[in-house]
Amino acid sequence: MALMITDECINCDVCEPECPNGAISPGEEIYVIDSGLCTECVGHFETAQCVEVCPVDCIISDPDNKESQDVLMAKYERLTAV
To answer: What distance in Å separates the CA atoms of residue 52 and residue 49, rounded to the nearest whole number?
Structure first.
């Protein structure tokens, strides 16, 4: 399942550099996560790094983008293919 950032985001800028896929970027009001790039860090780390560093716990599973571990791993492999 891809992640999303809720409106509790305080724009602290700590999540964006932690994303190994470049899925996090500034939105119009708060940071946003591109579900096409988000693998929840599957293939890179044991846990989602953005969730680990978020000081206000505003990064949650996106109910509109449910993906299995296998799908996330396939996305990781596609994104990191040379």
So the answer is: 5
